[in-house]
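Summary of Year 1 activities. Much of the first year was spent building the evaluation harness for sequence design. The harness presents a backbone, in tokenized form, and records the residue chosen at every position. We chose the following record to illustrate the format because it has been used consistently in internal testing since the harness was completed.
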């Protein structure tokens, strides 16, 4: 079974490489951090590695289970290698340390750095790109170097695979494809290419904060903390409730803000609520002498 799958993947990769020759490489939207370059270098050095008997891999052994399905373990191992070589502290801070099925995706959601391919983020709501009125649709977000890509091989929302983005290309047909390095594909480390329209893609764990998200009671993470900071600044929430957890006090503060500005008072921090909240924060900062910058002018 694995041999047949490997043959199909090899044929797919050859076809993808042929297409890539006709495609234009897209420039990242922002400068790629050094640590991402280092991570891609480490991952690239591992291309061609193959697992041993019964699925044994050095990445699984490093993570504590030599015979685990090791796509996540491979990425964690690569990040650890960067930390060791360059004295960085990325593992557990910029990138997750994990092996569980949905743990990595949940880590990025909590960190405020997850972009769904399409639809809702389970337990949260819809996402949108900053400055855009519409919610995210498939293909709106172009993954950047260093992003993690989470896949499902079935029709459910559980994560079955994860890969590391190297870069993206765009063909003459206008379609964008992402080029990745992935472990456990199916018995080794390999490069692969996926269309952004691939329905198996669940979403992306991003290097930077790239999208806004609907928040509601029970959510926890960096996005909630940012929401609370804005509510505190405007006087709707007491500072003692700055926790990153969307509890009763935060829900009441959101409802009070919505009522003040004629928004639907459902305590859900949706797009309209967050946009108006940001407008009020910016308005107050413009009027706050503490935030003014003094500019010396030459005589």
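For this record, the design step produced the sequence shown next.
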């Amino acid at each position: 079974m694995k041999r047949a799958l490997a043959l199909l993947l090899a044929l797919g990769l050859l076809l993808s490489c042929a297409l890539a020759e006709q495609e234009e490489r897209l420039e990242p939207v922002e400068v790629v951090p050094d640590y991402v370059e280092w991570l891609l270098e480490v991952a690239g050095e591992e291309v061609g590695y193959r697992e041993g008997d019964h699925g044994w891999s050095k990445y699984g052994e490093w993570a504590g289970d030599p015979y685990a399905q090791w796509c996540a373990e491979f990425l964690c191992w690569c990040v650890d290698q960067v930390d060791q070589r360059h004295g960085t502290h990325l593992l557990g801070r910029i990138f997750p340390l994990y092996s569980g099925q949905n743990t990595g995706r949940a880590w990025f959601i909590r960190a405020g750095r997850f972009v769904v391919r399409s639809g809702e983020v389970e337990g949260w709501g819809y996402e949108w790109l900053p400055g855009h009125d519409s919610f995210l649709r498939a293909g709106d977000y172009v993954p950047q170097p260093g992003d993690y890509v989470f896949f499902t091989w079935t029709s459910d929302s559980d994560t079955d695979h994860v890969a590391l983005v190297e870069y993206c290309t765009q063909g003459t047909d206008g379609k964008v494809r992402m080029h990745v390095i992935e472990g456990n594909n199916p018995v080794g480390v390999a490069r692969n290419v996926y269309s952004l329209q691939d329905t198996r893609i669940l979403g992306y764990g991003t290097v930077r904060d790239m999208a806004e998200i609907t928040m509601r009671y029970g959510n926890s993470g960096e996005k909630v903390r940012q929401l609370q900071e804005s509510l505190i600044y405007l006087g709707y929430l007491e500072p003692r409730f700055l926790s990153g957890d969307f509890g009763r006090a935060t829900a009441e503060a959101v409802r009070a803000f919505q009522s003040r500005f004629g928004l639907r008072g459902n305590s859900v921090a949706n797009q309209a609520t967050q946009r108006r909240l940001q407008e009020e924060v910016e308005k107050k900062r413009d009027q706050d002498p503490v935030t003014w910058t003094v500019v010396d002018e030459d005589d």
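Helices lie at 2-20, 34-45, 58-63, 71-86, 103-110, 222-233, 248-260, 271-287. Quantitative recovery figures across the full test set are reported in Table 2.
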